[in-house]
């Protein structure tokens, strides 16, 4: 069986070496030595000045909305994983959708201003598939209307835009280290921001609001990464170059061999150094997608319909129509993409797709 992704597992001895440190320290969570080491290593690897590791990629979004959302209307993208929209509703804010760009698939920055009302407090946009939003235009709009910017950068591990980590953009940016993402800690995630005040609020928010054992800055939740999760991260991180190399090879194979007279791929924004995190293809019709999906499934190959349905159609999303997002969501699929996907399997996948188009 070939799935859309396959989690990279480091050599078990290397994971066990990290676990031995935990046994020696007899310390399993509450920002122990391994979490702190992972944060230091990630800062260096990603070239960011701050990072707060958390227990998944959803909690940092919730915390960002708690810190910046102020129960207001949040301008957001309908084309993302469901967590982007669910967290807005979960944090008692209101999602206000703005349709996406048909080629970049990120929020269409030219349509944002029309959606702003006196209740708007923030923009929450996703760098979907690791493709950067138009960060300059969004920053200018936010400045003009005094809005905060949150980026769901769950797909953006290692992506740079104009030579700068994509995590450095926006007031707060978040990442996921879920097992399906290119760098993982099993479950895990992180929050990035360059503002000292937001950093402090985010930090205490992920640890019950603690200032010390007996003092509290304010309200908080438990968003801490455990030492066991950090052990996985410390074991995976040294393999990032191999992971990226393997993925780059797969992407190059698809680029070279798929029949693009009948398919489209997404357009990467200029000045982006990408991370090969997903391989989405867009069919002419949903029927064409379903036909290819069926053929692949019959050969035990399971691409995923990332991202379907368009998030404006969820039952808690209101009834805003998003024609471009709805159309793309119905026609897009992500192909298997992972480090060790071999040439025999790639050949079969491409053959089944091209033959059934
Ligand atoms: C994976 C993902 C999340 C959620 O991350 P978890 O670590 O699974 O909580 C949020 N947003 C997007 C776009 C994602 O792909």
From TrEMBL:
GO biological processes: polysaccharide biosynthetic process
PTM-bearing positions, type N6-(pyridoxal phosphate)lysine: 181
GO molecular function, one term: pyridoxal phosphate binding
CDD domains: AHBA_syn
Record-linked Pfam families: DegT_DnrJ_EryC1
Keywords: Pyridoxal phosphate
Active site: 181 (proton acceptor)
Assigned protein family: Belongs to the DegT/DnrJ/EryC1 family.
Protein name as annotated: dTDP-4-amino-4,6-dideoxygalactose transaminase
Organism this protein belongs to: Lutibacter oceani
């Amino acid at each position: 069986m070939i799935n859309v992704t396959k989690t990279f597992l480091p050599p078990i001895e290397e994971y066990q070496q990290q676990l031995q440190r935990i046994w020696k320290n007899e310390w399993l969570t509450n920002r122990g030595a391994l979490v702190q080491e992972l944060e230091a290593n990630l800062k260096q690897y990603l070239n960011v000045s701050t990072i707060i590791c958390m227990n998944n990629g959803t909690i940092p979004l919730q915390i960002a909305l708690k810190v910046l959302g102020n129960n207001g209307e949040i301008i957001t993208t309908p084309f993302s994983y469901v967590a982007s929209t669910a967290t807005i509703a979960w944090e008692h804010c209101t999602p206000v959708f703005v349709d996406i760009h048909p080629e970049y698939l990120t929020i269409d920055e030219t349509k944002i201003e029309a959606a702003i009302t006196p209740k708007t407090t923030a923009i929450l946009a996703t760098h979907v598939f690791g493709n950067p939003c138009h960060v300059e235009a969004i920053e200018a709009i936010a400045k003009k209307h005094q809005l905060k910017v949150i980026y769901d950068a769950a797909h953006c591990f290692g992506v740079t835009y104009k030579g700068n980590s994509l995590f450095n953009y926006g007031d707060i940016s978040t990442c996921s280290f879920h097992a399906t993402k290119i760098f993982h800690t099993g479950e895990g995630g992180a929050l990035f921001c360059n503002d000292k005040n937001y950093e402090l609020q985010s930090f205490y928010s992920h640890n019950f609001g603690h200032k010390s054992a007996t003092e509290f800055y304010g309200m908080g939740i438990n968003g801490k990464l455990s030492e066991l999760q950090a052990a996985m991260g410390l074991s995976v991180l040294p393999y990032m170059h191999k992971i990226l190399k393997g993925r780059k090879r797969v992407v190059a194979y698809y680029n070279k061999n798929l029949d693009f007279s009948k398919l489209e791929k997404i357009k990467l924004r200029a000045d982006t150094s990408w991370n090969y995190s997903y391989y989405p293809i867009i069919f002419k019709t949903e029927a064409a997608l379903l036909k290819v999906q069926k053929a692949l499934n019959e050969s035990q190959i399971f691409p995923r319909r990332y991202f379907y349905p368009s998030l404006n159609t969820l039952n808690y999303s209101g009834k805003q129509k998003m024609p471009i997002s709805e159309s793309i969501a119905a026609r897009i699929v992500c192909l298997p993409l992972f480090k060790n996907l071999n040439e025999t399997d790639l050949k079969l996948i491409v053959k089944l797709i091209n033959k059934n188009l």
